[in-house]
Amino acid sequence: MHPAPWAAAGMEAPDHGISVETTSEQNDRLHAYGRQLIDIHDRLRDSLDALRSGQDADLGLHCLAFCAAVTEHHTGEDTGVFPALARQHPELREVLAGLERDHQTIATLLRRLAALAAQPDRAAIQAELDGLAAILESHFSWEERRLVRALDTSVGLTGLS
């Protein structure tokens, strides 16, 4: 078999608008959305566990960084992922509304933690981190149970970070 003329000349194949992805490649791409959500949650869980371990000399600074990461993640969901899921999976609209309400509650806790992070009271910060950990774990678990399957069958999502 002879190589195509464009390949022999070191050029890329012309794009004729025809997808060459196999069904397996398409499924892998789709399943990546659900896996990405779980991976993000796992990284946030690990970060929170590290904060709660009490070994951090810069606890306040790292609390602020954690608050920013969770806020960015939830903002991306609320403004990008959830509206797209609602369009593609209307049956999830009530679930998505509940998750957005959770995000508002969590945002209040994050603001409280950020305010505490500026103070040297490690015991107060630890207590706030413990409460936040319980709420976030419940939220992340519920979100994963309710959304991973829908994410795995959705296309064109943005906002997961």
Provide a descriptive summary of the structure in words:
There is one protein chain. Helices cover 75% and strands 0% of the residues. It is elongated and about 45 Å long. The chain has a single domain, classed as Four Helix Bundle (Hemerythrin (Met), subunit A), CATH 1.20.120. The chain contains five helices and no strands. By secondary structure, the protein is an all-alpha fold. The protein starts with a helix and ends in a 9-residue tail after the last helix.
Average pLDDT, rounded to a whole number, is 81
Structural class: mainly alpha
CATH class: Mainly Alpha
- Count of DSSP helices? 5
Q: Major sheet, described briefly?
A: none
How are helices and strands ordered from N to C? HHHHH
The unreliable regions are 1-24
Count of distinct structural domains: 1
Give a topology summary.
Layout: H1 5-8, H2 23-52, H3 59-88, H4 93-117, H5 122-152
Features:
mainly alpha; 161 residues; Four Helix Bundle (Hemerythrin (Met), subunit A); elongated; disordered N terminus
Quick structural summary:
75% of the residues lie in helices and 0% in strands. The protein is an all-alpha fold. It has a single domain, classed as Up-down Bundle (Four Helix Bundle (Hemerythrin (Met), subunit A)), CATH 1.20.120.
